Amino acid sequence: FTNLVALIYDRPIYTGLFPRWFPSVVDGRRAWGNVARAALVDNLVCSPLLYFPLFYVFKDVVVERSRGLGGALRHYARELPAQLPVCWSFWIPLTATSQAFVPVHLRIPYISLAACAWVGILSTATAKLDRAASNRP
Length: 137
Fold this sequence. Notes:
Layout: H1 2-21, E1 25-26, E2 29-30, H2 32-63, H3 69-101, H4 107-134
Antiparallel strand pairs: 1-2
Helix pairs in contact: 1-2, 1-4, 2-3, 3-4
């Protein structure tokens, strides 16, 4: 999953769009406003609208084969309120650090290493939510 994400999500966003939209250095000075904007756009727009739906479709449709596309997206919608705070606590500081200090050509390795830990955290959180949902009457 992390390799798929690196190709279709991380690379276009972190080495293509964000450096153009939110350059971290402007006129030789660190552009902290752009660093903050990149972290917020990533976590308030990209993660909820791109990353999480991709994760749930991959998990539910491809790996577990427990749901169809619509079911995977409904599953995601149910778990979104619990998942986003976990996402934000992990990715906002990492995205800001990446934007502020990691050269563009090294952002994919940086994000990919962080993503290995993130997938473990996300899988654990999702498994807990799934167990809790299956125990409801």
